[in-house]
Amino acid sequence: MRSSSHGKLKHLDLFAGCGGFTLAAEQTGGKIQTTQFVEIDPDCHAILQHHWPQGENKTSMALTGSTPPAISRPG
After folding, report:
1. Fewest C-beta in 10 Å: which of 34, 40, 53, 75?
2. Domains and CATH numbers, the chain
3. Which stretches are tagged as biased composition: Polar residues (predicted)?
């Protein structure tokens, strides 16, 4: 999560399922804003679209335009 200029954290919900983490984030009083969902299950997509129609819903990281960070391995 990254803080924006107005103090709100932006959240990318990976493996979103039916949106449990986003629902919990909403309970913070608007301090965390979910900007995108990534979920492969079509039934979960329907639930996410119903409850958060403004959220961008993707099926894989490749479609988000994001590049995953490199992982450093010791040794």
Report:
1. 75
2. 2-63 (3.40.50.720)
3. 56-69
